[in-house]
Amino acid sequence: MTTHPGSPVRVVEESVTKKSWAVLGVALVAQILVVLDISVVNTALPSIGRSLHLGGGDLQWLVTAYLMMSGGGLLLGGRVADLLSRRTVFLTGLGLFTVASLVSGFASSGGELIAARAVQGLSAALLTPSALSLIMTTYAGAQRKAALAVWGAVGSLGVAAGVLIGGAITTWSSWEFIFWVNGPIGLVALLVGRRILAKDRAERPSLRDFDLPGALAVLGGLAALVYGLGGTEKHGWWSLPTTAAFGLSFLLLVAFLKVEQHAAQPLFPPHIWKLNNLVSGTAVMLGVTGILVGTVFLTSIFLQTVLGYSALRTGLSFLPFALSITAGTVVAKHLLSHTSPRTISTVGLLLTVGAALLLSTATSEAQYGVDILPGLVTLGLGVGMVFVPVSVTSMAGIPASHAGVASGFLMTGHEIGAALGVAILSAVASTAGTLTTAAGAADAFSRGFVGAAAMGTLVAVFALLRMPKTRGTGGGDHLHMH
Q: What does the pLDDT look like over 359-383, one tens digit per residue?
């Protein structure tokens, strides 16, 4: 998130009264837990599926339940953190996340685990905005910039680290420990937070201030959409349950837009939709994040189910992917001073499309170094090139008074895109085979990446038509999502 320097007088005062880094430490521990749980489950999916007897269509729910509730509840979580005590919201979210993590590890059925993951996601929707709010209100000047830089690093590296950590824990112990490990870490952070976070008071808000009807409508609409996509393997695309779920999703999301037009304190203020750079940037962010997280989901299953990799080896196999994403962001930062965000984003998306088509050629006889690695590295490079121009241009021209709402809008697109990406690519993949057997997973992997290429093509066309064509400034600050 871009920060704005204060007045000279304030900067002098801030340089004299430096704050302890303890608050940052607690906030980062909480955010690390949130970020890791986006991807930590991916390398454990085959193990969880065998243990809980889950079908191929059910596996994606272990990822999407968390992302859907986190993304759908993010703006409500931000509103709660603004209206109530930040300390109380943070500690409540952390406590709920810790309990939900322990429950996840003890789950004895797929339904129990999916429900616990959904509660984890809602907890994350409280934790992320309240933790960031604590950082913004505790630190200022150079300290705030340093804190936000570390926060951004956690968000950038978290997904890749989650895949590796999940693989190591699953290999050396069992899948349950990827959730149980959150217990002692969360408990220590909770106890430390209670001691070091200063108590703050907030005026007693009314229920109208929270826009609960809007929050329920958007969460219900997203849940119905993901349910419809997840049920396509079992029921088919044109079955009554699937079409009913899609219809309900459409009605609820339309109702959400109507509610926002008349709400006293809407989650999405109507004027947000008039900010073309923000809306177009968020749409591209939604699409590219969906491809990114969907790639992690499909490739994790392919490497273990088809190639027979251990969970740890699978996690290590994603390291070049993470490095290529980082390389893509560096390239994009350099190019911003020489060419337009539209061009950079379109080129990055076309690289992503080419990489997806390359990955779609992998068969059950594939070798990682020849058939998987080149596609993964190219896709990571393309995705990394898109993130920077989208983040920079989305926030360009946004006044400081609206920066929080605008960044929340972009972050929501990021999270929802991740959930929908897994759901859509899983549904497309399941039209070719089940993800739980070696033969089925190979065919599903190939079909899924044909779907990723189609998705990338649509997003590339949108970026070419709607992204800003004016040249940006190189090396600018940009938002970091988790």
A: 999 999 999 999 999 999 999 999 9
Looking at residue 187, its amino acid is L
**What is the SS3 assignment for the chain?**
CCCCCCCHHHHHHHHHCCCCCHHHHHHHHHHHHHHHHHHCCHHHHHHHHHHHCCCHHHHHHHHHHHHHHHHHCHHHHHHHHHHCCHHHHHHHHHHHHHHHHHHHHHCCCHHHHHHHHHHHHHHHHHHHHHHHHHHHHHCCHHHHHHHHHHHHHHHHHHHHHHHHHHHHHHHHCCCCHHHHCHHHHHHHHHHHHHHHCCCCCCCCCCHHHHCHHHHHHHHHHHHHHHHHHHCHHHHCCCCHHHHHHHHHHHHHHHHHHHHHHHCCCCCCCHHHHHCHHHHHHHHHHHHHHHHHHHHHHHHHHHHHHHCCCCHHHHHHHCHHHHHHHHHHHHHHHHHCCCCCHHHHHHHHHHHHHHHHHHHCCCCCCCCHHHHHHHHHHHHHHHHHHHHHHHHHHHHCCCCHHHHHHHHHHHHHHHHHHHHHHHHHHHHHHHCCCCCCCHHHHHHHHHHHHHHHHHHHHHHHHHHHHHCCCCCCCCCCCCCCCC
Rounded to the nearest 10 degrees, what angle do helices 56-72 and 45-52 cross at?
120
Mean pLDDT of 449-468: 96
pLDDT per position as a tens digit, 390-408 = 888 887 777 655 666 777 7
Sign of CA dihedral 186, 192, 196, 199: positive
Structure token pair of residue 329: 């962001």
Asked whether the beta carbons of 241 and 231 are under 8 A apart, the reply is yes
Phi, psi (deg, nearest 5) at residue 20: -65, 145
- How does pLDDT run across 316-355, given as a tens digit for each residue? 999 999 899 889 988 998 998 899 999 999 999 999 999 9
Within 8 A by CB and 6+ apart from 101, the residues are: 33, 37, 116, 120, 179, 180, 182, 183, 186
CA distance 482 to 190: 21
Q: Can you tell me the distance from the alpha carbon of 194 to that of 198, in angstroms, rounded to the nearest whole number?
A: 8
Cβ count near 186 (within 10 Å): 23
Q: What is the pTM of this model?
A: 0.85
